[in-house]
Design a protein that fits this description.
Length: 347
Amino acid sequence: MRLRTAAVLCALAAALLAAAVAGLALGPVRIAPGRVLDIVLGGLSGERPAGAFSAIVWDVRMPRVILGALVGAGLAVAGTVLQALVRNQLADPFLLGASSGASAGAVLVIVFGAGSAIGAGAGVDVGVPLAAFAGSMGALVAVYAMARRGGTMTTGRLILAGVAVQYVLSALTSLVLVLAAQPDQLRSVLFWTLGGLGGARWDELALPAAALLLGTGLLVALARPLDLLLAGDEGAHTLGLDTGRFRAAVFVLTSLVIGVLVAYSGAIGFVGLMVPHAARMIVGAGHRVLLPVAALGGAVFLTLADLLARTAAAPEEIPVGVVTALVGGPVFLWMLRRSSRTEGIAG
């Protein structure tokens, strides 16, 4: 089993490397993969080559590829954990309103400036990520409270609660969009609603990277209690887990990861739905192995999705959230149909 897990992780790491090279090589200006590797290795050795190709690789495409990998990994990890917390494989940061909540919080700060001065003294603008975190957590708590009735939660109530919260938050975002008077604010708000990685910059990668590494590390350390939740609240409580406190603490941690990542990418849906499901089919439900596999799988998926988004209709660019929705929508409907056969969508 360990050998198989190691083989899966090595295969995903190789796939991520190949996807990253493709992301650096392809675009409006195509660069040969061998030339890309020379530019990257030269830069890593401290002798960055001069010229337009080097500038395209290092200054334009590499921050975008890295941000895509970080966001994909984080959303996949968050989806995996949410599915364990609510014991439902249809859970996803986007479908449960967490991404919409994070976007709404970030948009409020962008348009009205509330909290934008936080962290300014340290040279770090954390107002948008903090607002996104608050919006993400508020949405998750609202969905969970609405979906849980009489100590039970069905797929129907979970999806309906998620859709309801999404509509409310989308209406709030639209209202803010109407009230936004500045053209640059309108462009920023539109970015949050569609999701995109085109604004990636080197100086903005540290915070999402820290959130992903810290959050994933803590969640892997909590793999055993996450496994216990799969046995149900009563079973987990019998085995010594305080399910209420544990679920609340992990909700906060997951909301923090989602909020920070969405603050830099906008709302990108279905990554947290499809990738954990595929990873679970390969390595099983044990979270100590499942979480790293989902993280690498999410990084590969979103890196390739972003590559498709900026090359499929070149020179025009499709928001990457549209690409993930076109892929994830049918998968979601298939999973919903399969789930409804056993419990009934109306709950």
